[in-house]
Design a protein that fits this description.
Elements (H helix, E strand, L loop, with lengths): L1 E2 L3 E11 L2 E12 L2 E14 H4 L2 E2 L2 E2 L1 E15 L2 H7 L1 E14 L6 H9 L7 H12 L3 E14 L2 E10 L3 E10 L4 E10 L12 E9 L4 E5 L1 H97 L5 E2 L5 E2 L35
Antiparallel strand pairs: 1-2, 2-3, 3-4, 4-7, 5-6, 7-8, 8-9, 9-10, 10-11, 11-12, 12-13, 13-14, 15-16
Length: 366
């Protein structure tokens, strides 16, 4: 420590603060009735349980933090110095666990929305959202938060973190003179297969009030929009499925009718083929019958002709007389008629024919 009358300087100061190790330098002085402060402080391994506030008798966050800050201030009074404070720094949170924020609440919220019988709105989903979001905890690991100080207000913006269930983005403003905080965390759930274009399942957790015990609020407008759009998409898909089922049933009916028509056509063709085959068989049988009758008739005629010829031959052999021809065969001769035959009494000799005495039965003239 160094004393210069109207100025005190602490160089390479060390100590314990908020459960961690503090190191740095501080210079405080008075110049012509106006105080000033110049400092550079580093904290390693601070305890968030001691640095933060509690809610429902439990710390809002657990873990450790490292802090590095450079700060300047000036003013006639401590309050004026607080309002004029400026600087910058970085806070790094390790093993950060947020108590009272459930990053895995989306399935519960979806179930609550599906169970509603009325149209989904921010008011209708708020109570279910508060019960689901403000229960449990979220382990986000390491978070780095750069900040700036101007006009006595510490501001941190666009601080991101996340786990497997949700993404976090936070911003805050701390009024060092008034000891008040105004900030919030955007908690965007990871919907997975429930993702919808144009809507995100997001809630905003707001913190406002004294840093010792700020008030907490929950904005569910984006979440209500997501759940409402999801309900609309579910209804649309349900209608599409019903329409698809109707179209599929109609298609199946058409296919059944087509298959039935084809089966009837095949059956008709089969019956036609059977009838044609029967007709051809009947025609063949009739042709065979007619052929058989013709063959039987021809055989009968041949038999009758043979019998007639045999009868003629038998009669020719039984003739009383005849003559043999030059070949020695016996030739039949007409019976001779008497004088009365000239009057037509003999049918065997023509009229006017004379008797030939040179020819005798069974005698051949040499």
């Amino acid at each position: 420590m160094e004393w210069k009358g109207d100025e005190i300087s602490l160089t390479d100061a060390t100590g314990d603060w908020l459960g961690g190790k503090l190191a740095g330098r501080v210079q405080v002085g008075n110049a012509n009735g106006s105080g000033f402060l110049r400092s550079r402080l580093d904290v390693k391994g601070g305890d968030l349980t001691q640095a933060g506030w509690t809610r429902s008798d439990a710390p809002v966050a657990t873990g450790t933090f490292d802090l590095s800050v450079a700060l300047e201030a000036s003013g006639a009074t401590p309050e004026a110095m607080a309002h004029s404070a400026s600087g910058s720094g970085t806070a790094t949170f390790n093993g950060l666990t947020l108590n009272g924020i459930n990053s895995a609440a989306l399935p519960q919220l979806i179930a609550a929305a599906d169970g509603q019988k009325t149209q989904i709105s921010a008011d209708s989903i708020r109570s279910a959202a508060e019960a689901a979001v403000f229960s449990g905890q979220s382990v986000v690991g390491v978070v780095k938060a750069p900040f700036s100080v101007a006009g006595g207000v510490l501001r941190v913006q666009n601080v991101t973190a996340g786990d497997g269930n949700a993404a976090f983005m936070g911003a805050a403003a701390l009024d060092l003179a008034a000891g008040r905080i105004d900030g919030g965390i955007d908690l965007t759930f990871r919907p997975g297969e429930e993702a919808l274009a144009g809507a995100e399942p997001r809630v905003r957790i707001g913190y406002a009030g004294l840093m010792e015990a700020p008030g907490v609020s929950l904005d569910v407008a984006d979440l209500a929009n997501f759940l409402s759009l999801r309900a609309f998409e579910r209804e649309r898909r349900r209608v599409e499925i019903l329409q698809a089922n109707v179209l599929e049933k109609q298609r199946l009916r058409r296919e059944v009718a087509l298959y039935k028509a084809k089966a009837e056509a095949r059956d008709l063709e089969r019956r036609r083929a059977v009838a044609e085959e029967r007709r051809r068989a009947a025609g063949a049988a009739e042709a065979a019958r007619v052929k058989a009758e013709l063959e039987a008739r021809a055989a009968a005629e041949r038999k009758a002709e043979a019998e007639r010829q045999a009868e003629a031959a038998r009669r020719a052999q039984q003739a009383p007389w005849g003559m043999r021809g030059a070949g020695g065969e016996q030739q039949p001769i007409a019976p001779q008629s008497g004088p009365d035959d000239t009057q037509g009494g003999s049918a065997g000799r023509p009229a006017g024919q004379k008797l030939n005495f040179e020819v005798l039965p069974d005698i051949t003239v040499q």
